[in-house]
Each structure stands twice: as structure tokens, then as C-alpha cells.
Sequence to fold (625 residues):
Amino acid sequence: MSHREHCVHRGAHDDLPDLTAEGVTVRLGDRTVLDGVGVRAAGGRVTGLLGPNGSGKTTLLHVLAGLRRPDAGAVRVGSTDLRGLGDRRRARTVALVEQHAATTVDLTVREVVALGRLPHRGRLGGARHDPRGDAVVEEVLGMVGLSDLAERTWGTLSGGERQRAHLARTLAQEPEVLLLDEPTNHLDLGQQLRFLSLVRELGLTAVAALHDLELAAAFCDDVVVLDGGRVRGHGPVGAALTTPLLGEVYGVEASLAPHPRLSRPHLVWDGPVEAP
Amino acid sequence: MSTRDARGRAGRGLLALGALLVLLASCAVALGVGSVDVPVSRVLAVLARRAGLGDHGVDLLEDQLVWQLRLPRVLGAVAVGAVLASCGAVLQSLTRNDLADPFLLGVSSGAGVGAVSVIVLGVGLGGLAGEAVLPVAAFAGALAALAAVLLVASAGGGALRPHRTVLAGVAVAHLCGAYTSVVVIMHGQGDAARRVLAWTLGSLAGLRWGSALVLAAAAVVALVWFLAYAERLDAFAFGETSARSLGVPVAATRWVLMVATALVTATTVAYAGAIGFVGLVVPHLVRPLVGSRHRALLPASAVAGAVLLVWADTAARSLVDGQEVPIGALTALIGVPVLVWLMARRTAS
Fold:
């Protein structure tokens, strides 16, 4: 049974590894983009990565994905240091849904999803090195609800379908940790809600950079709030997103309130917002 | 829905078989066409005799025309077409640029420097025939230009970023072009300018068995090499970050493939000049038929490029009696309308 099937049907998440970053520092020239960032994304939970534009969310995700080597600090999945992994092993450990990854190449949905099998194949490629490949591709297409669109070409898909295809591609990598960089940008509200519900249902360890605090409050278990390259808040949504923190980081007067009908918090603006 | 979805695996097999048959038929016809026409049946008789399958009453003239003169040229056309088209497909994917072609890294202009130095200045002629020195000088010039482009493109980093590489290629090409123009204008005598221009537009007229076999070897090596990278090239579809997150060592892959395409392209330029538009246009023609996955796109581009060049070369040597039409002009004549059509189609969709 694949690791993924495993998580979908499980309640507890004790055997899924945590993703931890310690003292991650990234400098670009003389600018410090990330300054000693420590993050723990608990196994099987969805962690929202929040912060204003330019707070370092994308850079941190790239460090967590092992795509960017930090100037200091380390990233671990379970007890495995990402730096010690080869490219393909790393791609089987963490997978990244990029922010609006576009292409002019006219691949079909199935071909895009099959790209996710690349790290499972031999160096010289070829399906015979990956006997489970076709079955996994079919399975993840079903998980994101794209089985019927598998033969459609990229140019004919809606934004929501494209994002689901990207998600399926990362699932085909069978990673231990899923990273998503503002995956709901360019989607309409219905697509945003359906996409994030889908991510939640997977039950994988996931870290999603999100722009929208309301979505973060609704779909994340935990949040990390970045500002100016530093962690300003970290913990379960209800505990971390405090009125003082939101005021300091976003310059707004807001707080979390219980949802009128559901057992989750939602965000309310308290005071008038001053025009700049 | 794209047209290729209706086709199964069997359909793709048939398409491959059909493409190979078209290529073989084109070669058979091309071997018969020329100053003296040889019917296809006699062409096959010559080939059968050479293969040791009976005499078939082949006379010396037929054998000379088909086997000694035309076959190296046709084989060379196949090899050059296959190399240029597959290099174009590789570079368009690596740089994510639809306009990338095999001369992206300055090899054609660098080869031009070498060729002009021989044709006009007579460098290295000392006793040797220019015919033999020209390919060597062109290849050396191409390598020097490639080195310069790589040096400029990777300065202060090491990663060959596509837009930097394209800019470096353009810069080096202009420098080489300046040298070529100055040499032709200051030192060109008699028909030097005409010879340089003819070389620039490419020609397969100089191909003999030796050079044709070198080109064929280059084509085989290139195709096998590129096919080994087919799946990693697919991973470039969504850009560099996406490719890296799929475990593709992007920087190393770019270096290896860019240098490999430049080397095999330089080999074709050394013997046949810079034949334009094949590498640019053929991958665009083939994608609607076989899709964008490189496992299919690379061989399909190679076969289509080969067919195109066989016909272009046949036209080059038979359109005008007693004179060669530059093959680069013919490929441009076919390539430009196709490019315009592609642009119109893309704008429409």
C-alpha cells in the first residue's frame, strides 16, 4: 500500500514525519531575507505560512523544498536532513506546488501528472523502471477529480483544473511533505475553497503559503506568521492569530471569532481601516 | 481535445513506421534526381549490387552517380536535418523559448569566422587544398565562439540562465559578424564575397563518403544522447523551479545538453555551412502531430528534419541547371511561411 493511501484513511498522524526548519537564514547581497527562521510543521497537519508581501514566504518554501540552500540553518523531514539527500530522493520526500506555474507546452493532464513519477524512475528513464507508475498516476488523477479530463491538453483547462493537475503531479511524487506556494492565487472563490478542502482531505503533512487570512483560518491547523524575514507567531490558528499580532504585522484591527454555524474560527475586522 | 489523443499506442507505432517509409522513399527518389535522372528501380538495383545482392546489370555510370556522388550527399542531408531539428527541439525546451534554434550559442557565426579566414585570407592553406582545411577551420571557429558564449553567459554564477545565454549568443554572433564583414570588404578579392555568402547559406555539395559518415555518426550519437535526457527535458515544461522540485539537476542538465547541441551543430556547420530554419521550424511542425513529450518529439523531429533537408537538397541541386541554389535559402523559403502560419495560429488560439 502506498504511503498516501495510508494517510487518507488514518485518523491519527503519529507516523507521519514532521517538517522542521531551524535557524534558517538567507541573505541576498546585503539584505537578510530570512533571519534565523525556525518552523515546525507537524505530521499530518496543514500549516499555513502567512505574512505580508515580501515577508519571505516564497524564499522559506524554497528552502523547505530543498531548492535553495540557506546561508545558515537546516531543514529536516523526520530526522533526515534535506541537505544529505540527492536530487531524486529529495523529490520523493518533499514536493512543491508553485505559485502559478505556467507553460506554453501543450502537454495533456495525464502527461503533466506523469512528470511526478520522474524521481521514481531510473536515471535513463523508461516506464519499466517504475512498475507502479501508471497505477499511481491514475490514482492521483482520481483523488483530485481529474480522471475525466486526463486527455485534455493544458491550454484547454481552467485555472482551478490546472492547479488540481499541479497538485496531482506533486502527489504522484509520493512525497512525505507537500509544500504549496499561494496555490489559490488566480482562482475564483469556489475554486479556492474546493482546492484547499482537497488539500485538507489528503491528510498529508502540508505547508501552504497563503495570502488570505480568512482562508488560513478556515483550512489550516497551525500557522506561522512571517514578517521581515522573522517568525512573529507560530502555533494553532486560534492561539497564534491574535489581535495584537495582526495589528503589528498587517496594520489592521482584526480578530478571530467563532463561526456562527461551524466549529472553526473566522476572521472579522474590528475597527475602521484608515486610508493611507 | 488534441488530435493525438484519439490515437493509441498502435497509432503512434504506425505513425513512426509511416514517417520512416516517407524518409526512405524520399531518399530513393533523391538518389535518382540530378543532372542525369536515374529511375528509382535502377537506384534500387545499384544499392542491391553494392549490398552484394546480385549484379542487376548495373553500369559504371549509374554506380558512380548513385553510390559515389549522390548517396553521401543524401546521407549527409539526412544526418544534418536530423541533428538540426532535434537540437532545435532540445534548445526550445531548455530555454523555454519558441525561437531557440541550434545556432543559439554562436556556433554558426563562429564557424563563419573560421571559414572566412580560410576563403578570404587563405589562413592555413599552405600547400593543403582549401576543401580540406575549411571544415577544420569552421569547426575551430565554432568551438571558439561556443567557449566565448559559455564564458560570458556563466560569468559570476555558473548557471547558464536562458536569457543570459541567448544574450551572450547574440553578442558573440555580432562580434563574429563584424569580423567577417570587415575581412570580406577589406581583403576580399574576385569572387570571395560570393563564396563567403554561398558558404553562409549552406551547401551539401562538398559531401563525400568520409564527411557523410562523420555526420551520420554525429547524428546517431546526438539522438541517443538526447533521448537519454528525454524525460528530464519534459520536466522543463513548467520552468526551472518546477524541474528542480522534480529532482532534475537543472544546472548540470543545461550545461551538458547545451554543449552537446553546440558540438554536433558545429560538426554540421563545418561540412555544410549554417543551414537555417530547420532547427527552428521542424519541432513546431511536429508537436501538433506527436505531442510535446520528448520521447516522441525528438525522434519525430529528427525524421521530419531529415525528410525536409533531403528534399531541400534535391531541389538545391536540380532546380537550376548547372548551378546550385543555396540550400539555406530554400529552407528559409519553406520555413518562413510555416513560421508565419504558426504565429497566426498561436495568436488566434
Q: What stands out?
A: Confidence is low (pLDDT under 50) at residues 1-6 of chain B. The two ends of chain B are 13 Å apart (CA to CA). Chain B has one domain: 3-348.
